[in-house]
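Slack export, channel: ligand-projects

TW: morning all. Re-posting the request from yesterday since it got buried. We need the structure predicted with the small molecule present, not the apo form. The ligand is zinc ion; the SMILES is in the block with the sequence. No rush, but it would help planning for next week.
GE: picking it up
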Amino acid sequence: MTAVPANRPMLSGDRVYRIHWVLGTDRLRAVCHCSAEREFEDPVELWDWLLDHPCERSR
Ligand SMILES: [Zn+2]
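GE: finished. pasting the full token output, ligand included:
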């Protein structure tokens, strides 16, 4: 397996999402810009959760 590049520049602004592949599993961990995290097996559910995340409450 090729290593995931670690130094890619992130988009700046107040809508930055990160998605990490959880090593050794089929899961993806989504990290919202408000620092909420959740793991998913389905990328579609992941994006639904991220894009619908009620961030305003945690800020
Ligand atoms: Zn959020």
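GE: first-pass observations. Residues 32, 34, 36, 53, 55 surround zinc ion (CB under 6 Å). The chain has a mean pLDDT of 82.
TW: perfect, thank you
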